[in-house]
Amino acid sequence: MSILDFLFKKQTNIEASEVLNAEDFRNAISNKKVQLVDVRTSREFTSGHIKGAQNIDFFKQPEFKATFSKMNKDEPVYLYCQSGNRSQKAAKKLVAMGFSTVYDLRGGYSMWKY
């Protein structure tokens, strides 16, 4: 891999992930079928989650990667966790796995008021 290839790939990765505020996130996921993923633990998910979300625990990496590898990489993925930290890490992993567009909920589920 040349330096230019490396730099171009790095730039592409940066552009493939975007953080949305709660209102923009809600508008993006409402009224359509989307790949909406809660990357919190199953216990956190059970205590409350965004309607329609699938739970894929970020801390269970073999299962995390295996489940995402079965998803459509060309369709946007909408992620959230409790505060935004795990979902940012998850977004980076998904971009590295080849997902074209990943959106993350700024502030996580703690900012969700809908």
Write up this protein.
- The protein is built from five helices and five strands.
- The protein is α/β, with parallel strands linked by helices and 114 residues long.
- It has a five-stranded parallel β-sheet with strand order 1-5-4-2-3.
- It comes from Flagellimonas aquimarina.
- Residues 30-114 form the Rhodanese domain.
Tell me briefly what this model is.
The protein has helices at residues 3-15, 22-29, 42-46, 61-69, 85-96, and strands spanning 17-20, 35-38, 54-55, 77-80, 102-105. The chain has 114 residues and is of the alpha/beta class. The protein has one domain (3-111): Rhodanese-like domain (Oxidized Rhodanese, domain 1, 3-Layer(aba) Sandwich).
List the helices and strands and how they pair.
Elements: H1 3-15, E1 17-20, H2 22-29, E2 35-38, H3 42-46, E3 54-55, H4 61-69, E4 77-80, H5 85-96, E5 102-105
N-C termini distance: 46 Å
Helix content estimate: 40-55%
- Morphology: globular
Number of beta strands: 5
Radius of gyration over alpha carbons? 14 Å
Along the chain, the helix and strand elements come as HEHEHEHEHE
Which CATH class? Alpha Beta
CATH architecture: 3-Layer(aba) Sandwich
Superfamily (CATH H level) name: Rhodanese-like domain
H/I helix tally: 5
Mean pLDDT: 90
> Might you state the CATH topology name?
Oxidized Rhodanese, domain 1
Main β sheet profile:
5 strands, parallel
Domain Rhodanese: 30-114
Protein name: Rhodanese-like domain-containing protein
